[in-house]
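Changelog-linked ticket: magnesium ion example.
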Amino acid sequence: MTAAYVTEPGAAPARAAVRSEDGTSPRERDTERRTVTAPDLITVHDLKMHFPVTEGALVPRVVAHVKAVDGISFTIRKGETLGLVGESGCGKTTTGRCILRLELATAGEILFDGNNLIELDRKSMNALRQKIQVIFQDPYSSLNPRMKIGEIIAEPMQVHRTEPDRAARAARVTELLRLCGLDPKFADRYPHEMSGGQRQRVGIARALSVRPEFIICDEAISALDVSIQAQIINLLEDLRDEFNLTYLFIAHDLSVVRHLCHRVAVMYLGKIVELAECDELYNNPMHPYTQALLAAVPVPDPEVERRRAHQIVKGEVPSPMNPPSGCVFHPRCRLAVEDCARAVPEFRELRLGHWVACSVI
Ligand SMILES: Nc1ncnc2c1ncn2[C@@H]1O[C@H](COP(=O)(O)OP(=O)(O)O)[C@@H](O)[C@H]1O
Ligand code: SF4
Ligand SMILES: [Mg+2]
């Protein structure tokens, strides 16, 4: 079944939410153009991934569920980059794996180009896989150490039969290496002969080789040095603009998504707690968890640091096997009231395009 949602939670606004009287920033203008004209490429509706926990070796029985993703919704328009941010274990990778159908979601819908990925048969899904690629966090372990760089980049073209001819594949490898800022001579080298930043460029070239429309970047820059992170973000931005790519950019840290993303969704314990355009989220964070995440991003001004220190969230993230009742953030929330432990907050659009799951603000 496929469905079109008129007021989908987490939908991109019909016009830019943030505008200044005296001129807009380039990203605001870009965001406005994009959100007004671009069609939706992917819509995730009430997605759940509950992993069963079993007991008993001979006759395993399900005794609990890990609620890795617990009812999230968002839309990404063509050419848009959505950041998905939250602490480790909140369900970011699982969300990406459900979209790639490496996990079969427990419930919900993932509409891509009008197809519900959860219900597609294997053959149709394999055909669509070419359009959805992934770049992983760890460029050290995601490249096969026994394959040459040229073979690694050519492999998806062979799997999806996009370039059946060997010479055409070799020409495309050269083109992709150049596009990703690498010397074509690297085609004959092995991953261990390259630096972390160069390997991540190879990961990007491999993802691009089959001309995808949508790329999931799962912590794609987290393992790199800060100076290299900036270069890879610039490369991703250039490639997005050149090929009209759409990204889901997963990161555990809000500071790295600001430059690249048009909108950002903040995840906590399997749920999206806030979603807004990037500048709006940074300038006007509403959810106490987003405020705490932003307070953890260091700023050079010691006075500002002191004022923000009280917002830093205390304690550990609870287990997704036994999440807190009501608002899952209530045991750590500085604004929590008695009712927060009882009622699950609705995901509400409090300003245009700015969605928040908190019943107190
Ligand atoms: N295959 C699995 N079986 C059981 N639990 C899983 C599985 N994959 C992930 N999880 C759990 O789901 C939660 C979310 O994991 P993940 O999506 O990797 O988080 P993130 O990418 O945000 O760090 C974690 O508690 C993790 O242990
Ligand atoms: S609903 Fe309550 S516990 Fe949840 S974020 Fe809002 S104030 Fe905090
Ligand atoms: Mg992860």
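Closing comment: Example verified and attached. Residues 226-243 form the longest helix (18 residues). The pocket of magnesium ion (ligand 3) is lined by residues 92-93, 219 (CB under 6 Å).
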